[in-house]
Amino acid sequence: MCTQFEYKCYFEKHPRKRSKIVEHNEAIHDGMSTGKISPPEELLERGGPGFAKPEPPREDQSSVEDATKLRSMEANSGIAFTRLLGLRLDPSSGPKLFTFGWNLGSSTFTVPKTPPITDFLAQDQMYSLARLYFTNVHPLYGFLDKPWVLEQLSMRWARPEACKIPDHMLAGIAAVGALFSDGSMRHVLPQLVDSAKLALESTSTMQPPCLMDVQSWLLRTLYLRTTDHPHAVYMASCTTMHLVESTGIHQESSSTAFHPSANEHLYDPDLRRRAFWIARMLNTWVSFEYGRTRVALRGITCQLPTPREGDYTTDYINLYSLSCCLDPERTNQIGQWEDFLKQLESYEVRHDGIELSKANLGLCGYRRIRLANPSLSTEVTNRIINIGLRGLEAAHRLAEQGQPWWHVANVPFQVICVFLAMDVRESLAHIATAMRTLEHVVEHFNTVAMKEALKTARFLVRLSKKRKDEDANVLGQSLKKDLAEDPHPGNMQLPSVSINGGVTTVSHGTPMTTSSNEDWNMDNILNNSDFDWNYFLTADMPAFNSFAPDGAM
C-alpha cells in the first residue's frame, strides 16, 4: 500500500494495554485443545474460586486476515479512494471523507424543527431528573461525563448559545431518570421521548454522527429496554452499533480512510471505550434474548475501560466477556457449557442489577446446555438453581426499592419457566419461591404487562400440576386390583383422581377446586389429554418467533 501511494513506509508499534481477562480468554482458547485451563491468580481473586472467562469473540482477535479484510473494504469504497487519492497528492490538505459524486444531490431534506427542551421542562425539573439518572443508572452504565453534563445543563437555561450538549441527549437523560422517579414526573415522559426520537432519527441517521449521537442512542436503547417491545429495543441497539462503526470508536486509534478523524476526537478516550463496550454489550444481550443476529464489527481494537471508584460499569463488561460463549455461532459442547455455568456461579457481583443479568445468563446457559445434553447431572442442576435463586433475591430487593430494571420482571418469570422445564424435585421445590417473588414484583409495579406475566406463570404451573396428576392417576390404575382385594392396605391409600370442568374429585367424594377466578379459560386445555406437554415445557424459551406480524405479543 505504501509503495502504491508513494508513502514513506514505517510502522510504530504502540504497546496495547491488555486486560487480564482478555489475556486469559485467549489462553483458554489455546488451552481448549489440550484440556488444560488454569486461571491466573488475579482472576481467582477477582471472580472467586474457579473463575475464568471464555475466549473473546472471534472478531476481537486481530490478525493479518482482519487487516486484509479491512483493506479490502477500503478498496471497495470509491468514497474512501477519493480521500486516499487526495492524501497521495497532498497529505496536508486532502479532501475529507465525503460523498463527492455519490448521487445528483437533489435531496430536499431539511432537519425538522423540534421544540426546545426548555419549552416543556423547567431547569429545576431537569436537575431533579438528572440526579435520578446519575444516582440509579450511571453507576451501571457509565458512558457519560457527569461533571461536563451537569455544567452544560446549567448553561442550557442560562446561556443557551454557549451550551454544547444537544437537547436530544438532555431529553434522553431526563426520560430514563423519570423511570426511577416516584411518578410525579411521568407526565412529561411522552414529550421527552418524542422529542428525542424525532431529533435522533433526523440527525444521526441522516447526517454523519458524533460521539454524543452514540450516547443519545444508548440512552434511547436503555429507555426502550425498560418500557417497550423487544423489536424496538433490538432496532435501537443495532442502530447504536452502526453509529459506533460510523464514528470509529470501536478502534483505539484509527488511521483508516473510513475514520480519519478518530485520533482527533476531543473526548476522553476512556469515555469512548465505555460507550463502545456498553453499546456492544446491550446489542449482544438483546439479540440473545430476542433470538436475532447481533451486529458484528470488523477491526475492533478498543481497549477495556478503566475501573473507577463507585462505578460498576467494568463489572458489567467483565460479565459480558463471560457471556461471549453464548454466541449462536459457537458449537454446542456439554463440557463447554458446564464450564460456563461453573465460572458464572463463581463470578462475584457487587450490585443487584448485575446479579439479575448474571441470573439471566445462567438461564440462557441452561437452554443452551439442553441442546447438547437434555439429561443434566445433579451438580449442573443445583448450579442453575443456585444462580436462579440469587437472581430471585436480587429481584425482590430491587422491587422493594422501586427500581424498574427490566430483569426485575424477566428473571422471576424465566426462573419459573426453567424450573418447570427441568422437572425435577430440586427445581420444583423452589417454584413457590419464584411465584412469591413474581407476585411481589407485581405488587410494586402493577402494570398490565406484569399482570399478564403473573397470569401466564400461574397457567404454566397449573398445566404442570395437571400433567403430574394424570401421571399419578395412571400409576393408581395399576394398583386397582390390590385395592379391590384389600380395601384397607395398611397406612397407604391411593384414591382415584378425575378432573372435570376445573374441579378435581377424589374417590371419597370431596371436591377440590383447582382453578381460581382467573380470566384464562383453561377448561379445554386442562381436559385435553392429547396436549403435548413434553413439547410445551421443553421447547426453546423464549419463543420470540411466535410474535404476530403486527408486533403484538
Automatic annotation (TrEMBL):
Keywords from the UniProt entry: DNA-binding, Metal-binding, Nucleus, Transcription, Transcription regulation, Zinc
Claim: Repressor is one of the keywords in the record: no
Q: Which GO terms describe its biological process?
A: DNA-templated transcription; response to xenobiotic stimulus
Q: Where is this region: Disordered?
A: 24-66
Q: Name one GO molecular function term.
A: zinc ion binding
UniProt xrefs under Pfam families: Fungal_trans
Coiled coil region boundaries: none
The answer to whether keyword Lipid biosynthesis applies is no
Tell me the superkingdom of the source.
Eukaryota
Boundaries of each Xylanolytic transcriptional activator regulatory domain copy?
132-309
| Basic and acidic residues bias (residue ranges) | 55-66
Q: What is this protein called?
A: Xylanolytic transcriptional activator regulatory domain-containing protein
Taxonomy of the source species: Eukaryota, Fungi, Dikarya, Ascomycota, Pezizomycotina
